[in-house]
Amino acid sequence: MTSTQTITLESLPHNSNVSTARSNKRSGPPNLLGFDPANADTIIIASRLADAEVPDGGYGWVVIFACSTVTFWFVGTTYCWGIMQAALVARKLSSPSTIAFVGSLTCACISILALVNARVIRAIGARNSSLIGVGLLGLGEILSGFSTRSVGALFFNAGVIMGLGCSILFMVICTVPAQYFSKKRGIANGIVYAGGGIGGTVIAFAVNALIQELGPEWTFRILGLVTLATGLPAAWLIKERAPITTTTFVEWSLFKNIQFSTLFFAGVLATFPLPVPPFFLPLYSASLGLSHGVAAGLVAGFNFSSAMGRLCCGLLSDSIGPVNTLFLSLLLSAVSMLVLWPVSNSLAPLVVFVIINGAANGGFFSTMPTVVGTVFGSQRVGVAMGMIVTGWGGGYLMGAPIAGYLLAAYGGENSTLKAYHPAIFYAGSMALGSAALVLVVKLRLSRNPLKRL
């Protein structure tokens, strides 16, 4: 006796995320830091779909050059703080470490307010955020012109108000270009950040000439007026291609990814040494017996090299990969400070150091947003970049002042060149530590040194 059992087969429910992920695994761009496309979260999937539709040009180039223009002012001005610092120290306003603290506070605001500004941009849009940022930057500069006899007032106007403007603008240029470019994202970011290097080159000569002719007061005021006149029209041209929809304030789950955590701490270390050369080159030049004009020329050369480094690293990111490029830029920065700067006892070797370190310095800033946007998703770039930049706060705030304290402890700016060596070795060691962390990331991805990562 036999019996027959009927079995009904039911189709499994369709999971669009899985199918999309599998499709992207076959044809999507490579995911560098260990996110398996077959198991990617919805933000990674949405980012890949959005990146597949980006124009890689069109109005994106208008946005890129508008972002480059505002970067010209807020990065260029902060990178020329060393020239203003030397003038204020010569007036006996305060010590180099204290005046450096003012410039460091401007930069630190970028990190302290990164997550808040990412939220602001999402709420009011990139254009309105850019207009507010340029307005605060120009206003802070004008008010600083009335604060050159008071350290406290200078801290508020140059440190806080200018810092608020710089912090908003920095997050705008970190998040908006990724919406318009995918295959050319590296060179697009390179052009944006090169604007800061070119700005530092032009502003260095302008600030030195204005200080000699009109003094620091009118130098600040003229910078503020010109920033408003040229920066506001550029800010109006900046707009998103699509609304930023990420609602998470902090995505703590990213720290579960070892590569993200390692990159986070690499950025923490890297930002301690990066402000030291541009802030202290004018004082170091004076210790060599060089003129104010030569000192300004060195700062301008540093910033021009930074611009070229940002462009070159943008191109390298598109060819050899952003992780490889980030490692090379940090390693070059460390070697230049540990090997070249300590033996730069005349103009010629100092110029070589300025060119190499400036290029490496600029490469860090243009490469990091490319790493974040490419690896963790263009639709997550605001939150992820905000988290990473927040970690830079300690370096931005204390990096240059620590160098100033070390300089003072070993004889001060009026002593011999050996008084600068502890500060130089401190900066170089921090850069080397950061390069080592990026190397850890690279080795976790692949032990093949030639692999594009």
Record keyword descriptors for this entry.
Growth Hormone, Chain: A; 74% helix; globular; disordered N terminus; 453 residues; mainly alpha
Write a structural description.
This is Major facilitator superfamily (MFS) profile domain-containing protein. Belongs to the major facilitator superfamily. Monocarboxylate porter (TC 2.A.1.13) family. The chain crosses the membrane at residues 58-79, 99-118, 130-148, 154-178, 190-212, 218-238, 258-276, 282-304, 325-344, 350-376, 388-411, 423-443. One of its GO terms (cellular component) is membrane. Residues 259-453 form the Major facilitator superfamily (MFS) profile domain. There is one protein chain. This protein is mostly helical and 453 residues long. It has a single domain, classed as MFS general substrate transporter like domains (Growth Hormone, Chain: A, Up-down Bundle). It contains 17 helices and no strands. It has helices at 16-27, 42-52, 59-79, 81-90, 96-112, 114-124, 126-144, 151-175, 185-237, 258-270, 276-287, 292-319, 322-340, 347-376, 381-390, 393-409, 421-445. Helix 10 (258-270) runs antiparallel to helix 17, helix 12 (292-319) runs parallel beside helix 14 (347-376) and helix 16 runs antiparallel to helix 17. The protein is globular, with a radius of gyration of 23 Å. Mean pLDDT is 82; it is low at 1-40.
